[in-house]
Design goal:
Layout lengths: L1 H20 L2 H5 L4 E2 L2 E2 L4 E6 L6 H7 L4 H11 L13 E6 L7 E6 L5 E6 L5 E6 L2 E11 L4 H7 L4 H11 L14 E11 L3 E15 L2 E11 L4 E5 L19 E4 L6 E2 L5 E2 L5 E4 L5 E3 L4 E9 L3 E7 L4 E11 L6 E2 L4 E5 L9 E8 L2 E3 L14 H20 L3 H17 L1
Antiparallel strand pairs: 1-2, 3-4, 4-5, 5-6, 6-7, 8-9, 9-10, 10-11, 11-12, 13-16, 14-15, 16-23, 17-22, 18-19, 18-21, 19-20, 20-22, 20-23, 23-24
Helix pairs in contact: 3-4
Bound molecules: zinc ion.
């Protein structure tokens, strides 16, 4: 104990000595580096480009004369066009620590990662550089109480993760509008940081498991073409997560009328009668198939539609099938891709037997023949082995992360242990 006290005392004395010999500023500030400069050596002036600002005016305000400004702008031109300064973007002036505070370097940040340096301390030179980027792998588990966005929001997770899970990874396998309380998930993902501190969102989801109605859905990101940089998410058996639509709801049919917003019909005196569906002509009684898996949201007889069925596939897509002779499914039914949902007929407004196939994207009717629809490439046989080896440690990692509920059950025990210490 006595030894410790002496040490503290002598330390205190030493520190006082330093303060006496050096300026207070130097002793109290550690070296700060940014943009590759030691900021301590300068007076640092930070601002953002304002309306009416130009490179010349900013320098002039900081006491740089016009002949110099012209020369600087001219020499920097190959690296950066000074006329491209955008309102609202940050810039930094490094100025000499003298009474004139002469600017030595102008640094402009067109985005979070990049910065342009125009250095005119001695000779004039300009270059573009990038701030260091750090990726941090993280894991998260959660249990659904009402929605995925709420669960993630309560944990302070970027809404990007909701979008990645709902619109990309599980868009074809899980309907995020119909999650059940108690559905739960684990995600291994990578966060991106600029300059160690600035959060720049989620770089990628590497692996995830989602338990929906007690069924487990694994998804692993795998690069299928390293040259093109293309990737997909596959499950633990190497099956692609995407389930593209069938080209047509009926087999051996022909398209008798395409989606056409400018359709005019002679019968109606050439009045504009937009056609928001694609008509597949087929004999009465031909089976109509769901073009993708989903849940039946409408099944009824209504006016010009006749007998029709509407299916929701995920949060983005719905399809609708009109003029059926007979319907085979009812609201709430889960249908698989290719499953028969009814038979071709002539109910409602129709001149002949056909199914009017309507394709909805985000609540709007679009032309499925023109839409860029998700493609699902099966994993090639020679990649499959590589894939299974690749996901093995990731799957083990996922499986060892306890689900949220299991964690909170253990929490009191953890606290006790730390109290004993
Ligand atoms: Zn039609």
């Amino acid at each position: 104990m006595a030894l410790l006290a002496i040490n503290i005392f002598s330390c205190k004395e030493g520190k006082t000595e330093i303060l006496e010999n050096q300026s207070e500023e130097l002793a109290s500030f550690p070296d700060i580096y940014e943009f590759g400069f030691k900021l301590n050596d300068f007076i640092v002036k930070r601002d953002t480009i304002r309306k009416g600002d130009s490179f010349g005016e900013i320098l002039e305000r900081n006491r740089v004369g016009y002949p110099d400004i012209f020369q600087i702008a001219n020499k920097a031109r190959d690296t950066f066009d000074i006329r491209k300064l955008q309102i609202g973007k940050p810039y930094t002036l490094l100025c000499a620590k003298d009474s004139l505070e002469t600017p030595k370097t102008f640094i402009y940040q067109p985005n979070l990662e990049e910065y342009v340096v125009i250095n005119f301390s001695d000779s004039i030179h300009a270059y573009t550089s990038r701030k260091p980027i750090k990726y941090v792998e993280k894991t998260i588990t959660g249990t659904i109480t009402s929605s995925i966005s709420q669960t993630l929001d309560e944990k302070g997770i970027s809404p990007m993760l909701t979008n990645l899970l709902a619109d990309q990874i599980y868009a074809w396998t899980i309907d995020f509008n119909r999650l059940q309380p108690g559905d739960r998930f684990k995600v291994i993902y990578t966060d991106k940081y600029i300059d160690d501190t600035i959060y720049a969102g989620i770089k990628e989801v590497k692996a995830t498991i989602f338990e929906h109605k007690k069924e487990s859905f694994y998804a692993f990101k795998f690069v299928t073409d390293s040259v093109k940089g293309s990737y997909d998410y596959f499950d633990e058996k190497a099956k692609n997560q995407k389930r593209p639509f069938l080209k047509a709801p009926v087999q051996f049919s022909r398209i008798s009328s395409r989606y056409n917003l400018n359709r005019r019909i002679a019968y109606y005196g050439f009045a504009l009668r937009p056609h928001k569906g694609t008509d597949f002509a087929a004999a009465v009684g031909t089976p109509i198939m769901a073009t993708a898996s989903g849940i039946v949201t409408e099944s009824k007889y209504k006016g010009g539609n006749g007998n029709y069925v509407k299916i929701r596939h995920n949060s983005t897509y719905e399809t609708q099938y009109l003029h059926m002779q007979k319907r085979k499914v009812k609201v709430g039914d889960h249908v698989k891709q290719g499953e028969i949902i009814g038979w071709v007929g002539m109910t409602g407004n129709t001149g002949g037997p056909h199914v009017c196939y309507r394709f909805w994207k985000n609540g709007k009717q679009v032309d499925p023949l023109k839409e860029k629809l998700p493609q699902s490439e099966p994993i090639s046989e020679n990649l499959k082995g590589k894939y299974l080896t690749f996901i093995k440690p990731l799957k083990e990692q996922l499986d060892t992360i306890p689900f949220e509920k299991e964690v909170s059950d253990e929490k009191p025990k953890d606290n006790l242990i730390s109290l004993n210490h």
